[in-house]
Amino acid sequence: MTMLQLFVGDIYSLLNFMSFLRWLFIGVVVLGLIYLRYTKPDLPRPFKVPLFIPVVFCLTCFFMVFLSLYSDPVNTGIGFAISLTGIPAYYIFIHFNHRPKWLQRALDSFNRSLQIIMLAVPAEK
C-alpha cells in the first residue's frame, strides 16, 4: 500500500496520511502501559517511571490525533482507511488457520526465500 501511495503522490502526502495514525497507536500503547500498571502491579518491569509522565505523554498523543482530525479531516480519513486495509490482510495471512493448501505452500515458499535472502535462517538443531 505504501508503494502505491508513493507512485500516486509525493512523500509529504504519505506523511500527512500516516502521521496521525502513528500518534494514535503510540497513545494506545501508552494507555495500555497505564492500564497494566493498575491491573497487574506485580509484573516485573525493567524500569519504572512516575505515573504522571505516561499520563501526560498519552494525553499529548491523543491531542495530536484530535488536532489532526480537526485540522485536516480528509487526509486523516484517507490515512485511517489505508490502515483499515490491514484488517483483511491480518485475517487472510495470519489469523485464518484453514488456508487453502496452495496458499499455505506459496506463503511457506515466500517466507523461506526471504529467510535465505536476508540471512535469517534459524540454525539447525
From TrEMBL:
Domain of life, per lineage: Eukaryota
Keywords: Membrane, Transmembrane, Transmembrane helix
Keyword Membrane: yes
Gene Ontology molecular function terms on file: L-amino acid transmembrane transporter activity
Taxonomic lineage from the root: Eukaryota, Metazoa, Chordata, Craniata, Vertebrata
UniProt protein name: Amino acid permease/ SLC12A domain-containing protein
Species this chain originates from: Perca fluviatilis
Chain segments annotated as transmembrane: 20-38, 50-70, 76-96
